Amino acid sequence: MAIVETRKLTKVFKRGNVGAVNNVDLESREGEFLVLLGPSGSGKTTLLRMIAGLEEPTSGDILIGGRVVNDLTPRERGIAMVFQSYALYPHLTAFKNIVFPLKAQGIAKAERQKRADWAASLLGIKHLFQRKPRELSGGERQRVALARAIVREPSLFLLDEPLSNLDAKLRASAREELEQFQKRIGTTAIYVTHDQVEAMAMGDRVVVMSQGSVRQIGTPAVVYDEPADTFVATFLGSPPMNILPANGVIVGFRPEHFLPPGVAERLGEHVSYQFRVTHSEYLGAERILYGTMEGGAFNERKVISRIPATHGAEISDGNVYSFAVANRDLKFFDPKTEKRTAAARPPS
Ligand code: ATP
After folding, report:
1. Ligand 1 atom having least distance to the Cα of 47
2. Could you give the number of structural domains in the chain?
């Protein structure tokens, strides 16, 4: 098991350009499932590849278990990597695929069998040992690839969107399986995804990245409820947080905190706004209401509300309603830096 640390880690692909990864300081915890989350091009894969030893940093250090590993080969770093395309050898059976890295290391046959049995029992794939990859489903192939990664008993797991080839249903079950499996083996894992649901569901902590920089590191609850800046506030959550500038400050609140008449009274200290609903979406479990603010500090600003379908509020398009947000659910950001600032008086 290992703690991974990066110090001012930077990768510039073309001299003169902005870095794909800029000055990233990161420290994983023992046995942690750490997720790198960010939009396409934010530098997640490049960061992971530098930790793996597949990409040379322009500057900065990578430490594994307290030791600088910049000059070590991927194999010397004791890392197992699972990619989006797990690239099993098509002509070999699942068993042979799994023991392939052990054979390459010259490990004796009996030991190879023992480790393959161990990995297969963890992943429930022993019955698939004699099948070729083409005879396996996407999810089964993914488990074989995972087994192949763990038989080497790595001290660190690096995963780059390993579930993205699976359909939505399989993806959800594979996600849960992978999470439980990581907890069972207790190996530190770093997992790259651009899917916020996956990040929130799987991560012990989430590293939110944008343009090669880390915007925030925290538990899913912290990055969602206490975003460090407007980027994190709007990248997480669907629909995203409402971001409304007024009176020299940016005010943010989540759609699920912008509540219809009948609920506001139960909120405690709150602020009310006139909300003109322009259109709505019925999504089964909830309704998404789109519209604009009517009058006040946010006049004509677009805003979204998200209410449980069970709420049963009579709300129709084209009308104006008095919606409310509890004071505790209002977040304030500096308009210049876009970073969180201290709570202020809510504009009304
Ligand atoms: P995605 O989710 O799309 O995979 P990502 O967050 O993993 O994106 P990276 O693949 O790390 O992002 O890319 C970060 C930036 O570095 C991008 O602007 C990309 O174009 C650039 N980049 C990545 N690899 C190279 C390379 N080999 N040569 C030049 N530029 C590269």
Report:
1. 11
2. 2
**108 and 162 co-located in one domain:** yes
In whole angstroms, what is the distance from residue 52 CA to residue 24 CA? Answer: 15
Task: Find out whether the beta carbon of 193 lies less than 6 Å from any atom of ligand 1.
Answer: no
pLDDT band at 268 (very low <50, low <70, confident <90, very high): confident
What string of H, E and C letters represents the secondary structure of 11-49? ECCCCCCCCCEEEEEEECCCCCEEEEECCCCCCHHHHHH
CA angle at 304 for the pair 303 and 309, rounded to the nearest 5°: 155
| Whole-structure pTM value | 0.88
d(CA 37, CA 108): 40
The reply to whether 290 and 160 lie within a common domain is: no
Strand partners of residue 191: 35, 159
Same structural domain, 79 and 198: yes
Question: What's the gap in Å between 38 CA and the centre of ligand 1?
Answer: 12
**pLDDT tens by residue, 166-177:** 777 777 877 887
3-57 pLDDT, tens digit per residue, is: 899 999 999 998 778 889 999 999 999 899 999 999 999 999 999 999 999 999 9
Judgement on whether residues 215 and 246 belong to the same structural domain of the protein: no
Does residue 57 fall inside a structural domain?
A: yes
Q: Which residues contact 87 (CB under 8 A, 6 or more apart)?
A: 145
Ligand 1 within 6 A of CB of 38: yes
Query: Are residues 300 and 325 in contact, defined by beta-carbon separation less than 8 angstroms?
Result: no
